[in-house]
Design brief:
CATH class of the largest domain: Alpha Beta
Radius of gyration: 19 Å
Number of domains: 2
Distance between the termini: 35 Å
Structural class: alpha+beta
Strand content: 15-25%
Bound molecules: (3R)-3-hydroxy-3-methyl-5-(phosphonooxy)pentanoic acid
CATH architecture of the largest domain: 2-Layer Sandwich
Length: about 300
């Protein structure tokens, strides 16, 4: 039912999680990166007219929720809707602060719900801009890769604000292991910027190496060269360690996955906590072996998503 402003009584929106396959952090400094949607973890938002905000599911970090709220407020302001209170109910099915894109997905789901509530259509660019508005509040300097990845339905290659589909000829399982430690994206991004800036010559070598690894990975991903892709992922984990964003627990999880037969393993997202990903054969037996090894090494939960198939 519509009211006189074209507003409905209720709007719904959804958005899924993501993992960064390779290129996090250096993407902030201009290298490409590859991200993969994780459709089985998602945020559901319902927007109602009137009332107060409610969140269910794991508690969102304050900054993430405030990014979402402010993105919604900004959208309402742009549409000239100043006389309505929107009650936003979020069911959060993505663990927050784990490098899985929880804050971007919250905002994407919320913005979609509010657009439906208000009887408005958002094109892809408006949706991206609105989610990115919230991400800047949640994360400070944000490359936009989380925003692009939670809005994408297939793997993407992201570089300097532009994303395009990443060809995927690999069929693999991607195991995501939660270290149980909250990730710290904002301080991690600041620490990497300081590290690169301290020694600009070394910093530029690191970025060149990172770019090569991402470019190679894009080729391996496209050509179905799973073993080489795995090696590049593991090497990128070492690059991130050198930039100071790994932790002994994350190194330990990555090593456990490799010992259990993963082709490659690395931290994903901002680091200083969060998750590790491991590249595995598509068969459930080898995936289970790696999941068990990760759990024994201290992961508090694991999920499997698929590369080159439904995720
Ligand atoms: O939100 P996270 O933890 O997945 O990190 C996003 C990726 C970074 O490269 C670390 C930051 C950015 O904005 O690109």
């Amino acid at each position: 039912m519509d009211d006189s402003r074209g507003m409905r009584l209720r709007g719904t929106g959804h958005a899924h999680a993501k993992v960064i396959l390779i290129g996090e952090h250096t993407v902030v400094h201009g290298t490409p990166a590859i991200a993969v949607p994780v459709r089985r973890l998602q945020i559901d938002a319902i927007a109602y007219l009137g009332g107060t905000n409610t969140t269910t599911g794991p508690i969102a970090p304050d900054t993430a929720r405030s990014g979402t709220d402010q993105a919604v407020q900004e959208l309402l302001r742009q549409w000239g809707i100043t006389d309505a209170t929107v009650d936003l109910r979020l069911h959060i099915g993505i663990p927050p602060a784990r490098g899985l894109g929880g804050s971007a997905a919250c905002t994407a789901a919320a913005v979609r719900a509010v657009a439906q509530l208000c009887g408005r259509e958002l094109d892809a660019a408006q949706l991206y801009e609105s989610v990115q508005f919230g991400e800047r509040i949640a994360h400070g300097r944000a490359s936009g890769i989380d925003t692009a990845a939670v809005l994408a339905s297939d793997p993407i290659r992201f570089e300097r604000g532009e994303s395009r589909p990443a060809a995927c000829g690999v069929r693999a399982g991607l195991i995501i292991a939660d270290s149980g430690i909250r990730g710290e994206t904002r301080p991690a991004v600041a620490a990497v910027a300081a590290r690169l800036g301290d020694d600009p010559r070394r910093g530029s070598e690191i970025l060149t190496h990172a770019r090569e690894l991402v470019e190679e990975s894009a080729e391996f991903l496209s050509a179905g060269r799973i073993a080489e892709l795995g090696r590049a992922l593991s090497e990128f984990h070492r690059v991130l360690g050198g930039l100071g964003v790994s932790l002994p627990r994350l190194d330990h999880l990555a090593e456990a996955a490799l010992r259990a037969g993963a082709y490659g393993a690395k931290l994903t997202g901002g680091g200083l906590g969060g998750c590790v990903i491991a590249l595995a054969d598509p068969d459930t037996e080898s995936q289970q072996r790696i999941r068990t090894a990760l759990t024994e090494a201290g992961a508090i939960r694991t999920w499997v998503t698929t590369l080159g198939g439904a995720s």
